[in-house]
């Protein structure tokens, strides 16, 4: 009995050793043995905690056996004995090694992309720096590249810079469509640079300050100049609103055809939209085209809303521009060129109408004049403005050879019943009505002279900024009117 027990124990030990050898082979192959490899009655081999089938130690092309998998086929105790020896298998990389190689390649590729982006960013910064150097040089030289000191003043240089920037960004934009992203970025970047000058235009005001011992002192503090503090934020807001109006026409029902590229009865390839030819002199402006049945009511409502917004922006910008121009000093050269007689400058018929009526109506006078062209309107504006300042100067003639600054101060003391004062006031109302009736009117001779001889940098910025926004708002209104004109023409034909 003892011999049988000993032989049984030896056979059991041999079985355990075979199982252990098979288990060691399996671990050498790189995967965890299935529970079927281990004797269920033997608890001598502990389980490996946290061993994942997707870990770096798993075999790359062998089936992964997991204790939690219910789809793995049961493996026989001697299934590994029929396989070839692991020493004869070809060397392969583990999943962790492959993942590491792929991650290094991806890192290198991302690094290359990041380097390219960094280089592009540095190139753009270098380009902006060169542009800033050019702007700064022109500002200091007064647009005189010879450096001989014959350039214009700083105020005129900044005014010209804003005007030229507007022509660069919006000069070729003759349609109701979003602005090019590059041009939009250029406009914002350059205007921020030019308008930053206003951050350093300040005025000093007195302020009372109480000390800890109760002593009251008056100290001087700086704040933005009043005209810049009031007008510049308003102009920035109008600028953003105009850009928003253009961006709102990204999805539209109308399109544009270049004038002369298609006939009035032709249609776009693949479309039945009609092209209506306008009878005007602006042949370079693209002609809007609408569907055969006209625009939808939603599109018309959108156009009307944007037209009203642009019209209000135009009025606000024009009011700011007029206010800034009125505050500018009148150059001595313009005062010297004023006619001696306002009556001769304005004409006999207009003079009699202005003086002969008890209640002056400028709109009725403009209706009687029947102005046919913008050139005639501009000539009338120049003559009315010259006569106005001539009569104002005569109203203060009691002072011997006064300067124009004295004339402005003495206007409050002038007798309101004086004939020259009455004529000057009526000429001012006529000029205002003329500019309201012809908003596209060019600058008068006095306005041009003021801008050319202005030395105030803050006024130059406000005047030029409001002027370009006024022009853009007017153009947007005109473009919307063109679309409505074509829409009415198409619907009337239908």
From TrEMBL:
InterPro entries: PRONE_dom, RopGEF
Keyword terms of this UniProt record: Guanine-nucleotide releasing factor
Bias type Polar residues, positions: 33-53
PANTHER family: ROP GUANINE NUCLEOTIDE EXCHANGE FACTOR 1 (PTHR33101), ROP GUANINE NUCLEOTIDE EXCHANGE FACTOR 2-RELATED (PTHR33101:SF47)
Presence of keyword Mitochondrion: no
GO molecular function, one term: guanyl-nucleotide exchange factor activity
Name of this protein: PRONE domain-containing protein
Annotated PRONE domain residues: 119-494
PROSITE patterns for this protein: PRONE (PS51334)
Residue segments, region Disordered: 1-53
